[in-house]
Structures are given as C-alpha cells and as structure tokens.
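Long-time lurker. I teach an intro course on protein structure, and each term I like to show students one example going from raw sequence to a predicted 3D structure in token notation. This year I'd like something fresh instead of my usual example. Would anyone be willing to generate the tokens for the chain below so I can use it in lecture? Attribution to the forum is fine with me.
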Amino acid sequence: MSNSPTPPQWDFDPKLHFEILLDNISQHPPHLRKPDILPHLQNFLAHPDVRALLHPGETPPAPLVPSPSAELKEIRTTLKTLTQAIASIQKTLPSPNNAAPAKIQHPPPKTPSKNFSAIAGAKPSTHSIVVDLAHWNLAESDRPPVETICKNINNDLATSSHSAVRLIAAKWTAKGNLILTGDASTSLNVLLPAASHIAAIIGTRFTKTTPKTRANVKWSKILINGVPTGKSQSWEPYNPDECHQALLENNPAYASLTVMQKPSWVKAPSSYTVNAASSLAVAFEDPDGTKLKSIIEGRHLYAFGTRLNTKKWKQKPSTTQPSNQPPVHPPTLRSQQQPAPTPQVLPTSNPNPSQPRQSRRMQAKPGKQG
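-- Reply from a regular --
Happy to contribute to a lecture. Here you go:
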C-alpha cells in the first residue's frame, strides 16, 4: 500500500475560474493576445466536452492534432521555401508542350570506299577456262599473239551453236597452257559447254590433236610439316603418289579435296639425309577459300604413322633472274609452271628387286607432276 499523501481535493467553481481567466486575458498585451491566447482558445472550444455543451447531439469530431513543435514548424517552413524556389525555376524553363522537337542526328551517308579491293569487288565477275597445251611444247615463236587468238576463235564461235560465247582475253602461261576468258555476260555454265568446240578450233589451227580443257578455278595451297621422307641407305624419299595415297587413307578432310598438285617435297629429294623429315606442298581447288580454312583449323593430318602439322602456304619472294630467262610464277597455279622434266630412274642399290618395298617405291624421286 502506497504511503504517498493524497493531494487535497479542491472544489471547481466555473464562474470564479472563468472570471479569473477573462481578467487575465484583459490584462494581457493586446498585440500578443492573438498569437498567445487564440490557439489555446481554439483548442478549448474544439475540445469534445466543450463542443458537446455548445452543440448537443452533434457527433464529436476527431481529437485535434497537438500543436506542432518548433522543429517541425522549421522543417515545414524550409520545405515551403524549397517548393517556391523550384516553382520559380520551372517558370523560366520552356514548357514541354511548347518546346521545339529535338532534331535527330542522322549519320552522314557513307561514301564508297576507294581502295583497290572495293573497286575490284564492284567489277562484274568473269570466268575462264584452261586449254592444256603444255604437252605440245610450243616454242615462244610458235605461239600466236593473244589478240589473234581471241579474234579467230570469236569469228568461229559467231557462226556456231555457241554464238552467245565471246572471249575478251587470252593468256599464255609459263608452262605453255592457254587461259581463255569470257566476257561478263558469259557465265561458266555457258562457257564450259563451248570449251570442247574451242579446243577443236585450236587443234585444227595447229594441226594437232584436240587438247583437253578445264574450268580455271581458284586454287589454295597448304604446307604439311614434319613428314617422314622415308629416306634410307637403300631407298629414296617417298614419291608424290605414295604421299598422296598415305594422306588419302588417313584423312577424310584431305580425301574430300580436288587435288590439283599432288604432295611434293619443298626441297630436292636428293638433299635429304637418312631418316630425315621435311615438308610437303599440296594444291587443291578452292573457289571460295572454305576448304583451306577447314584444313588449317583442323591443324593436323596423319600419314606414315605420324601426326603432321598444316599451315597456309606462303610464297617466298623470287630471286632476281637474268633478263633472258622466263619469270618464275607462283607455284600456287600448276598451270603456270614449266613442264616437268622426264623422270629418270637411277640404278638400284638393292640386290633383291623382289622385296615388297621395291615393288611400290621408286629409287629416285620423279620430277614435279604436270
């Protein structure tokens, strides 16, 4: 039980208290009455008990929110000032509805490239055929001028069933073959059927047998490194046919190629020592370069029980030759090489010609394939 004293109970005299309150209000400075007394008077009149006396039967309103503190008033004042400042800034900005639409910056039109690659790509494509005349061994003096060749063949074609074909260029290769190019309107499908007729014209002009013809298709060339040469005390290095067959048997990617130049050693076979390894060069048809890309990305080929590395062939710059010698053309086009010399078989040092290897291997590496 609490021992604190009970506060004295005072009787409430409404009349006395209101007289005291009014007397105090009258004595308060008039200029301070409104800010000091009015808020309390409003709270008094808004009190539910007082409103019930003044307006009996009326639903009492929600209790009044206490008067905001000085800090809250300061915050409200600051927010109001900021709002007014933002409003004044917005008045100085153009209205979004009245603002002029922003201009879209379009990139300037690209001007056509002036480099040689672009110019060459814009030219209409032409197609050509190769007439195999290397085996005729025509001397330089026996080869008609290219303008005469085009003129005579075009005159003959004009009166034949291949009148739609017209040649615009001819070229003698270093090997002695003849490349004939049709005009831009002559597609390869039109030129190839006329090739046999053109070959017959050439054969008649030279009074020789009709030569063979083929489409002049772009070739690619690869270098195969780390190939065992097969050189020993008794045997010469593998010949192109043996290398070609070994690659065919072990590499589906190689078997899918149309090989135009069988594998050939990059050095003279006679220079290889016993058990040496060297590199082979192979050329194949590749109109769009996709076959070369596929072989290079594969990285390896297999032959003679060895994993071989593949690289793209890089033509080394040719050395300066005397002016009276024919120029050396890149070996990427076999049609431009000189005719291969007749291979000569050297006497064998193997006393037993019936050995299995003797039956499939030549003792000397033949010359380059035609």
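Some talking points for your students: The first strand starts at residue 128 and ends at 132. Residues 320-360, 362-370 have pLDDT under 50 and may be disordered.
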